[in-house]
Amino acid sequence: MTQSDEDIFNTTGIRLKDAFVVIVKTSWNSHVTDLLLEGCVKKLDSDGVAYTILEVPGAFEIPFAIQQYHQHNPRKAQAFIALGCIIRGNTPHFEYISQSVTQGLTQLNISLGFPVIFGVLTVNSQVQADERTGGRQGHKGEEAAATAIQMIALSNAIKNA
């Protein structure tokens, strides 16, 4: 990878020139997903990465929104970030949704040719969600953005090798 004056580097030296990310966030459990989005946007802004935000009703709809954006939008993303929160309840719904979203995002990650970052919390309780939105487990929104940046750089390096 060669460096030019036009390249933009973040603090770890990752190339960010012309980087564009699509964030897909759920409105379900918005008290959690709004915090995930806040951390994600903070990291992208600090590293000079352009982004757009799509909001979907729930986690199940995230893969569809990513696929539709990729297929129909002329501004192609270098990465997608999925942000959601699925909290275990008293029915098997948690397992069905968690598994479906995971499989959908995994399939897109492989088939689109662009990184799809998993920022969907699958937790047993609100306490666990709080721990992952700035608590003792860190901030998973910020981590998702950092992962997207690293994967954009890796993808660029592979394409330009």
Low-confidence parts, pLDDT < 50 over ≥5 residues?
Answer: 1-12
**Count of extended strands:** 6
What is the makeup of the main sheet? 4 strands, parallel
Give the overall pLDDT as a whole number: 90
Shape: globular
Compressed to H and E, one letter per element, the order equals EHEHEHEHEEH
Helix content: 40-55%
**Residue fraction in strands:** 15-25%
Side by side, the strands of the main sheet go 2-1-3-4
Describe this structure in words.
The chain has 161 residues and is α/β, with parallel strands linked by helices. It is built from 5 helices and 6 strands. The chain has a 4-stranded parallel sheet with strand order 2-1-3-4, with helices on both faces. A hairpin with a 2-residue loop joins strand 5 and strand 6. It is globular and about 50 Å long. The relative contact order is 0.21. The model is unreliable at 1-12 (pLDDT under 50).
